[in-house]
Task: inverse folding
């Protein structure tokens, strides 16, 4: 569809003459060759694949005597250096790199390597792994030209190539360029007029400062950060449910608008939860780590996806903050950069520090951990005071004096009792008067369950797949007391068996919720869960239940939301238990109790149950004992005293009721605020190990990994905490070689079209070398010194002489520097997907400028960063203009030309609508067609049309007006309501309805003129 | 010297060094252009590494994971052992999905449908694929496909892009990037999704995405109906004549801009707009099935008359490759029979059997089969045991990545051949495993591309469709 560019530069480079003894620069000339052709087999990867025991990435390795007796490099001695022989060889068995690599060395490259060996094979560290330092500004001929020290570096480099800076761009062009660079929108015609009229010396500075102060600035800067952070509005994967994430996006744009120092910006996102007394905003910032995709596809294995999520966090942070490709080290040591597999899993330990589930719930709850989003400080204060009230009520309860022993103990009547003597057609009968029978579940017929002799008469034996459901047993909430009692007989030592639960439909670990009694490797685990494992109260017996014997198992829950409120009794006596989780902080789903089975889970296979009884109260230990026929008089005094307290002490009853009321009030207040997923460190997080070949189910238990960083990039200061906060401190150490360079380079690219390092996504060994290394380093140092001041840096960029140059090249400049790497002229940018659309809306006068809030459909006419992003079906016109799907971190966008882009500009309903509205707007503004066209052109392209352009558009207008559109007579659809809110579950917008031309011939002709302007080069570029 | 391969970075850099427009070079040059850089392409015949046996691909992707036991891999033993548990010695502790992994028992399920031998080759097909059986001598059945993922999303992403991680280029995007289009009025990679399928598992645009390749290589979805390609149709009231006028005006604006700015990229943009204009004619033309003969239509079956049906899409695919489209990928959902498999797979085969066979016959009649590679298959297979209980006339099967079947035809493939052998339970591979990377390597090989040499440098690494693996399966090549 498009003819590929010829790599002219490469050919030019190859034909360039070189002197025999010209001195070789290791970083610039040698390392790229070694890295690209040699390191794959002779590089830092020690795990596997290092051939012949040779490593060429350091001098010691390269000069070592090999098993074969050869020495690859003898510095200064070409004859004795095996490497020189091997690269010169013609023998396919001998030659290096081997032919299978398909990347042979050119003559020029061989010459570089030979000269390097001759000159002593000096290794220099990779430029990007050495801390940046500031360089003095080079002396330049035209000192008056430079407005900022950065200009001197640009001037000097261009001068070396024989190029002089271009004249300053005209003011209109400059304003458009700066406006896109800083706000992502063109200036309005009024702004242009005001700027042109302002003759003061600092007119441009004033405009720049105004733009930096506009909320549009943060909206624009946020887009690139959203690409890097893979922000979207859905979870991705199968089903692609909505993901509630936009408060994080609002945090980002607010951070940019408030000019939050970049080191803080980084720290709060990576580790806001670990800061002392983190604010709600700092917790929201940490959602950065959690924006990766999550699946709820049936049958998915939680650990596999937990590891994938951790991997996503590691690589996103590596690209975003360090410009490194850490994912290479997931399976083996990095082939090029000094990052070992152990380094990778040390980073994984940083990012896997949560008590979390790898799977999303099928039911779509916010996956814990989460933070409550309160609208106001007052609401947050209310939460604190409600918490204090709970603590006070707990103390009051604890302070009560103990009661004496009871005179008698009576077991309350159960609300249901299933003797399990016989099956009816649909289930089993409840012997409590008026109680509803249980119904078969999972199979719907009795044939899967057996009646076997039980403790009293018959019992039921389960097959592991089928069970009962108790439809009346719903509303088992976290504040509802409950008791289940039955005789159980294990038929085997079940690794996992569900005895009872109230989860409802369960498709995997991500769904577990409600009450749950499991057999886990023979032990009983009793839980009340919001979502497992993060938000749950759970205990487990220390001893295994014996196999083959009937035992009465009674479990109680007192409605406290605490693990201490859970009890397990075996044959009437309390079992010793350990706390598995005590973190319940939200309500479970409300589903019926099910016995013996759970969808897609292991049921009570080969287990039997008899005499099921249920209470909507927590039986006391004394009652449980009595139920089992133990004489209460024989019970320990503590048990009896506790019974009296619970059943007969009005002071206790009142204090308990107050405590529960205070807990309910706190919960109600918390649940009035939306839950928002955030990063939260937990000591309950699983330990990190090196995973063999990166496979989730192959942890190498001999290689546990503490949280850590790749220390060969930058040393670790032992005084730092070994967690994400320490990572943030490490990254923002002014001496860190990558952090400042990466962000400076990325911001440079945003303003100047390409980075000083063209591979802005990779500053490692396989990345490009900087075009202006001293400038990049100096800017990086300045940036840190300025307090990581993003706005100040961008201000320098756009106020520089370099930025202000005209972008129109001379023929000579175009020949010498076709891609404008040397910046002897101003930057030319093809507008991004967002800019193209936002410009059209602004020009049409329909752009709804509201900062932040819920994501919306395109018809709401908001800026494109607010467009609802569904990962599996991203907005078509965005994809077509090179925006990504946001499924993974996207450090850079390509910039292509395709026919589909022309179709978007000319036919996409949004753009046609914009053309129509622009036509209406300008037709109202001036009676004269020529003036109307000029106005439309200025609204879109900022500048006035040149006479030939105006003539072409007028001709188009005349022809079109003479041939008015033939429209069908259907009534036109009313325009979509601007500011239409995204529905609860926003669908992808239907695009099948064709936009329609206005019937009025003049307006129709003007609409086509506007449409043509929107599709023109002047519209889609900033020059 | 060897020129550097075009990469993410060099494309960014050289974009302004574009050759302008397409007219000067014409189609020959389009076909010649860079598989590994244009300078080198001159030494490579027709942009390939070696002579291609296939010029085009039609991939009939059966999404959801068709059961091999009721289609292409007969297992009489399962009928004998129907309802008996899967022996642990067969399962060997391999992982199962969470859907049947906790099932109390894993009862083997024999196929409800019979198999018969077809053609001179005598290859066996189930009764559900009797029409496919009629072209058995043109087909090569691979019974030993295996993959790495066990859930739909990762598995279908892996199959379509060679990696479970989202964001890698799809098969068709690689073909477009490497070989380009043979028709400058149509995209090189077109995707057709069956509208008559049971949509049990969703599809995602990443399956035909360009990943890190330039977006021009992303699959363009053709839809049944008034507007086959998104935004193709002019707004109501804009006649082709009016559009021509707009493009003429646009041409003048851009010519003026180019003269003023000395930027050849302006021309590239105009060329794209002109191509869009040509697509407005060429796409509706190729999408119009009304001129097909009654005989042809009858061959594809009744449902060919339903726009967007699998049958209509098969016919559409033939029309597209006739026009020089490089890679056409059909997606037909609905093969995910965890339960009620007999009814489900009967429906699936009814929707696809006749048209798939008709496509082979149609291509053959037109002499296109010999250089068009056709592949039929899904992202994984299904288990030998039943998910859920076996009843008198029903059972289900869970996902099974360790072995499954697909068929290939045309484009240099050995017809009437069965490759690979699974054990008698259809659970493990006994002989000649074919990994997804191997299939990709073979597909690229048939297209004349060395899968190890077609690379794209991105984020410091040379990427290829086959990652770091893949062997060409020579035995399936004629």
Result:
């Amino acid at each position: 569809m498009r003819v590929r560019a010829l790599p002219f530069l490469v050919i030019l480079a190859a034909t360039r003459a070189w002197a025999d003894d010209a001195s070789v620069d290791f970083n610039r000339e040698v390392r790229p060759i070694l890295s690209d052709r040699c390191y794959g087999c002779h590089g830092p990867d020690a795990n596997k694949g290092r051939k012949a025991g040779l490593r060429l990435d350091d001098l010691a390795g390269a000069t070592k005597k090999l098993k074969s007796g050869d020495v690859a490099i003898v510095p200064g001695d070409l004859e004795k250096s095996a490497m020189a022989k091997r690269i010169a060889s013609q023998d396919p068995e001998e030659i290096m790199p081997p032919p299978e690599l398909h990347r042979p060395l050119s003559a020029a490259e061989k010459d570089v390597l030979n000269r390097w060996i001759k000159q002593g094979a000096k290794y220099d560290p990779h430029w990007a792994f050495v801390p940046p330092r500031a360089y003095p500004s080079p002396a330049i001929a035209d000192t008056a030209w430079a407005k900022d020290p950065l200009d001197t570096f640009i001037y000097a480099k261009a001068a070396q190539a024989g190029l002089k800076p271009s004249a300053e761009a005209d003011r209109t062009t400059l304003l458009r360029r700066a406006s896109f660079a800083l706000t992502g929108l063109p200036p309005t015609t009024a702004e242009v007029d005001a700027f042109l009229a302002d003759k003061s010396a600092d007119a441009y500075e004033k405009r720049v400062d105004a733009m930096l102060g506009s909320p549009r600035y943060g909206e624009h800067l946020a887009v690139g950060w959203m690409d890097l952070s893979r922000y979207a509005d859905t979870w991705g994967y199968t089903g692609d449910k909505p993901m509630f994430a936009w408060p994080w996006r609002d945090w980002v744009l607010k951070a940019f608008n408030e000019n939050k120092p970049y080191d803080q910006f980084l720290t709060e996102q990576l580790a806001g939860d670990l800061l002392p007394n983190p604010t709600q905003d700092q917790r929201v910032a940490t959602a950065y780590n959690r924006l990766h995709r999550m699946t709820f596809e049936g049958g998915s294995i939680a650990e596999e996806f937990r590891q994938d999520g951790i991997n996503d966090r590691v690589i996103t942070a590596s690209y975003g903050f360090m410009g490194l490709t850490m994912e290479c080290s997931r399976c083996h040591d990095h082939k090029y950069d000094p990052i070992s597999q152990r380094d990778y899993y040390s980073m994984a330990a940083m990012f896997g520090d949560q008590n979390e589930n790898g799977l999303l719930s099928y039911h779509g709850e916010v996956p814990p951990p989460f933070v409550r989003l309160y609208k106001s400080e007052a609401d947050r204060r209310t939460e604190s005071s409600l918490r204090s009230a709970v603590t006070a009520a707990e103390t009051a309860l604890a302070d009560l004096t103990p009661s004496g022993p009871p005179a008698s103990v009576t077991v309350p009547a159960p609300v249901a009792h299933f003797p399990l003597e016989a099956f009816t057609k649909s289930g089993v009968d409840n012997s409590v008067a008026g109680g509803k029978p249980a119904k078969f579940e999972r199979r719907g017929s009795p044939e899967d369950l057996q009646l076997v002799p039980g403790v009293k008469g018959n019992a039921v034996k389960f097959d592991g797949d089928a069970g009962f459901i108790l439809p009346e047993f719903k509303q088992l909430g976290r504040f509802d007391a409950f008791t289940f009692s039955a005789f159980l007989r294990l038929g085997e030592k079940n690794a996992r068996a569900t005895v009872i639960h109230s989860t409802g439909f369960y498709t995997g670990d991500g769904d577990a919720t409600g009450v749950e009694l499991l057999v886990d490797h023979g032990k009983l685990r009793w839980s009340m869960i919001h979502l497992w494992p993060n938000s749950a109260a759970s205990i487990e017996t220390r001893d295994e239940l014996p196999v083959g014997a009937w035992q009465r198992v009674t479990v109680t829950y007192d409605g406290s939301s605490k693990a201490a409120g859970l009890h397990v009794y075996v044959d009437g006596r309390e079992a010793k238990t350990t706390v598995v989780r005590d973190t319940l902080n939200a309500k479970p789903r409300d589903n019926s109790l099910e016995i013996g089975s759970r969808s897609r889970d292991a049921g009570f296979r080969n287990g039997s149950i008899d005499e099921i009884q249920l209470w909507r109260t927590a039986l006391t230990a004394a009652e449980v004992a009595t139920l089992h026929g133990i004489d209460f008089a024989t019970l320990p005094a503590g048990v009896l005293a506790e019974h009296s307290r619970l059943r007969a002490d009005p002071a206790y009853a009142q204090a308990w009721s107050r405590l529960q009321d205070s807990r309910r009030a706190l919960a109600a207040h918390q649940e009035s605020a939306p839950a928002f997923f955030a990063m939260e460190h937990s000591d309950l997080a699983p330990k990190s190990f090196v995973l063999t070949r990166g496979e989730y189910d192959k942890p190498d238990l001999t290689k546990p990994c503490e949280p850590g960083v790749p220390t060969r990039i930058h040393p670790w200061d032992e005084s730092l905490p070994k967690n994400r906060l320490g990572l943030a401190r490490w990254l923002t150490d002014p001496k860190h070689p990558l952090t400042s360079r990466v962000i400076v380079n990325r911001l440079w690219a945003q303003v100047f079209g390409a980075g000083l390092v063209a591979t802005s996504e990779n500053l490692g060994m396989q990345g490009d070398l900087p075009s202006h290394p001293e400038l990049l380093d100096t800017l990086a140092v300045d940036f840190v010194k300025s307090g990581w001041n993003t706005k100040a840096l961008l201000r320098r960029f756009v106020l520089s002489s370099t930025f202000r140059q005209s972008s129109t090249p001379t023929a000579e400049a175009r020949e010498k520097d076709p891609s404008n790497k040397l910046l002897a002229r101003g930057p030319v940018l093809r507008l991004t997907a967002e800019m193209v659309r936002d410009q059209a809306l602004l020009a049409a006068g329909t752009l709804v400028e509201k900062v932040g809030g819920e994501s919306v459909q395109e018809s709401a006419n908001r800026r494109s960063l607010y467009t609802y992003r569904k990962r599996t079906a991203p907005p078509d016109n965005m994809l077509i203009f090179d925006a990504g799907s946001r499924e993974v971190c996207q450090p850079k966008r390509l910039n292509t030309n395709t026919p589909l882009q022309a179709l978007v500009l000319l036919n996409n309903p949004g753009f046609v609508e914009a053309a129509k509205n622009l036509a209406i707007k300008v037709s109202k503004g001036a009676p004269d067609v020529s003036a109307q066209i000029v106005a439309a052109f200025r609204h879109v392209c900022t500048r006035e049309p040149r006479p030939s352009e105006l003539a072409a558009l007028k001709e188009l207008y005349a022809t079109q007006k003479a041939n008015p559109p033939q429209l069908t007579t259907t009534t036109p659809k009313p325009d979509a309501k601007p500011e239409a809110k995204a529905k609860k579950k926003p669908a992808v917008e239907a695009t099948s309805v064709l936009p329609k031309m206005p019937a009025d011939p003049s307006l129709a002709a003007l609409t086509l003129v506007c449409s043509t302007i929107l599709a023109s080069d002047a519209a889609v570029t900033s020059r | 010297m060897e020129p550097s391969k075009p990469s993410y970075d060099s494309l960014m850099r050289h974009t302004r060094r574009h050759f302008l427009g397409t007219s000067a070079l014409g189609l020959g040059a389009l076909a010649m252009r860079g598989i590994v850089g244009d300078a080198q392409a001159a030494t490579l015949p027709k942009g390939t590494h070696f002579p291609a046996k296939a010029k085009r691909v039609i991939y009939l992707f059966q999404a959801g994971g068709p059961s091999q036991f009721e289609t292409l891999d007969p297992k009489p033993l399962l009928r004998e052992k129907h309802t008996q548990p899967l022996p642990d010695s067969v399962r060997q502790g391999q992982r199962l999905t969470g859907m049947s992994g906790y099932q109390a028992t894993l009862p083997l399920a024999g196929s409800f449908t019979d198999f018969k031998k077809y053609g001179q080759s005598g290859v066996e097909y189930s009764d559900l694929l009797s029409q496919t059986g009629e072209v058995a001598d043109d087909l090569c059945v691979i019974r030993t496909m295996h993959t790495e993922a066990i859930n739909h999303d990762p598995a279908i992403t892996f199959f379509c892009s060679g990696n479970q991680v989202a964001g890698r280029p799809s098969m068709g995007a690689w073909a477009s990037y490497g070989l380009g289009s043979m028709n400058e009025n149509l995209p090189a990679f077109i995707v057709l999704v069956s509208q008559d399928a049971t949509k049990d598992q969703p599809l995602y645009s990443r399956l035909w995405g360009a990943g890190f390749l330039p977006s021009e290589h992303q699959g363009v979805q053709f839809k049944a109906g008034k507007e086959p390609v998104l935004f193709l149709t002019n707004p109501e009231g804009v006649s082709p004549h009016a559009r021509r006028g707009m493009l003429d005006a646009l041409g003048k604006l851009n010519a003026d801009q180019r003269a003023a700015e000395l930027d050849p990229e302006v021309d590239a943009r105009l060329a794209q707009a002109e191509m869009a204009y040509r697509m407005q004619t060429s796409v509706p033309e190729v999408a119009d099935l009304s001129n097909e003969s009654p005989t042809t239509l009858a061959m594809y079956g009744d449902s060919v008359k339903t726009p967007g049906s699998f049958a209509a899409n098969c016919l559409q695919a033939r029309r597209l490759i006739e026009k020089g489209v490089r890679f056409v990928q059909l997606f037909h959902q609905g093969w995910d029979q965890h339960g009620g498999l007999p009814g489900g797979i009967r429906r699936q085969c009814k929707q696809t059997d006749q048209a798939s066979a008709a496509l082979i016959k149609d291509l053959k009649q037109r002499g296109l089969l010999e250089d068009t590679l056709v592949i039929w298959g899904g992202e994984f297979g299904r288990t030998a045991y039943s998910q859920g209980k076996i009843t008198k006339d029903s059972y289900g099967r869970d996902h099974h990545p360790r072995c499954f079947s697909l068929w290939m035809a045309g484009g240099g493939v050995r017809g009437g051949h069965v490759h690979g052998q699974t054990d008698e339970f259809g659970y493990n591979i006994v002989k000649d495993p074919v990994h997804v990377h191997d299939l990709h390597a073979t597909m690229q090989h048939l297209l004349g591309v060395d899968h190890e040499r077609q690379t794209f440098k991105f984020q410091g690494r040379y990427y290829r469709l086959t990652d770091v693996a893949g062997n060409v399966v020579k035995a399936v090549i004629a």
